[in-house]
Design a protein that fits this description.
alpha/beta, six-stranded mixed β-sheet, inorganic pyrophosphatase (n-terminal core), five-stranded parallel β-sheet, binds manganese (II) ion, Diaminopimelate Epimerase, Chain A, domain 1, binds adenosine monophosphate, 2 domains, 40% helix, 328 residues
């Protein structure tokens, strides 16, 4: 652990210990790492007697698969976040924009603590606990819980595990020390299969029909991405009708299995001509760089951005950014 990181962990723990009211924010369209991290820390602070709320800027509803993590009823809608929070903690949020409509609270909060693992995080907090070598923000949260002297009970461990199993793709991108963390979480009572199956392995039957449509339109461009291959698919609002965001988010996990392509993209329609794009790479292309050229961000092998226009226009811009990063 670098000295910087241990100093910022100490400073964050002090700020949280002194606080009586803490607001924890995940990024927009929160995943298991964002909400699991926020709820793990939230549950611990709640147990220490503080007033705690957990929220995120958009959308209004909590992903169904993450609701059970909130055993203490800490989640509140964005509209219930105070105008000037005493202490604000932003988790798994690599940039200010990822707070969505709640980004304005950064200037009104008394103290802002940033807890994250994005290498591109500019450190927009008063205290910044950022470890770009951590596979998940949940790991950084666990260090903070240890710094706070919080006992790891099953509900807290489950929140950490949810973030960890998701961001490591079921521990395939986990270092040896991270497997040791997993062992510690299991020892605290986490049922690994019960946590992972709803998160990554369970969908309503309608999912199969949606996949059939979406995957039948997928396209492979062998010469794109500097000749490394690019595969893409588009999920329209119509394709996704009646399904949860969870079903749409998982499409990229199938598209990315295409052996002929180093890079995979899935365009997910959020509104008319408005897209959230998921990018994945196997090992050689830094898709964070690609996403950043298009106004987004993320990690080397998993990144994303939002874009407006026809799907074909978004794909052209993406192809061009891919050439810039991977070509020549
Ligand atoms: P996703 O494809 O939505 O699972 O996102 C993969 C990763 O890309 C996330 O963990 C974020 O780090 C990042 N990301 C996704 N969308 C955006 C965005 N619009 N802006 C910045 N980063 C993003
Ligand atoms: Mn995330
Ligand atoms: Mn994460």
């Amino acid at each position: 652990m670098s000295n910087d990181l241990s100093a910022s962990l100490t400073a964050a723990a002090a700020a949280l210990t002194d606080a009586s009211d803490v607001t924890l924010l995940a990024h927009v369209n929160p995943d298991a790492d964002a909400l699991g991290s926020a709820l793990a820390l939230g549950l611990a602070l709640h147990r220490l007697g503080k007033t705690v709320r957990v929220s995120f800027g958009a959308p209004d509803s909590v992903p169904e698969t993450l609701r059970d993590l909130d055993v203490a009823g800490l989640l509140v809608p964005a509209s219930a976040v105070p105008a000037a929070p005493e202490v604000l903690v932003a988790l798994d949020t690599g940039s200010v924009g990822r707070l969505g409509p709640l980004a304005d609270r950064l200037s009104t909060a008394g103290t802002v603590v940033v807890v994250d693992h994005h290498v591109s995080n500019p450190g927009f907090g008063t205290v910044n606990v950022i470890d770009a070598s951590a596979e998940a923000t949940a790991l950084v949260v666990l260090r903070l819980l240890d710094e706070l002297g919080v006992e790891l009970d099953e509900p807290i461990a489950r929140c950490v595990y949810a973030g960890l199993v998701t961001d490591t793709r079921s521990f395939r991108h986990a270092r040896a020390s991270t497997h040791e963390v997993a062992a510690r979480l299991l020892a605290a009572g986490v049922d690994a299969e019960a946590v992972a199956r709803p998160l990554m392995d369970s969908h309503p039957f309608g999912y199969l029909g949606m996949l059939a449509k979406v995957l039948s339109r997928a396209a492979l461009e062998r010469s794109a991405a500097g000749g490394l291959g690019f595969v893409h698919a588009v999920v329209t609002l119509d394709d996704a009708a009646g399904l949860r965001p969870e079903e749409v988010e998982s499409v990229v996990d199938l598209v990315r299995t295409t052996a002929e392509a180093e890079v995979a993209a899935v365009l997910k329609e959020l509104g008319p001509s408005y897209w959230s794009v998921s990018l994945r790479a196997v090992s050689r292309v830094d898709v964070r760089e690609v996403a950043q050229l298009l106004g987004g961000g993320g990690h080397r092998l998993a990144a994303g951005f939002t874009a407006e226009g026809d799907a074909s226009d978004v794909l052209s811009r993406l192809r061009e950014a891919l050439e810039t990063v991977a070509g020549g």
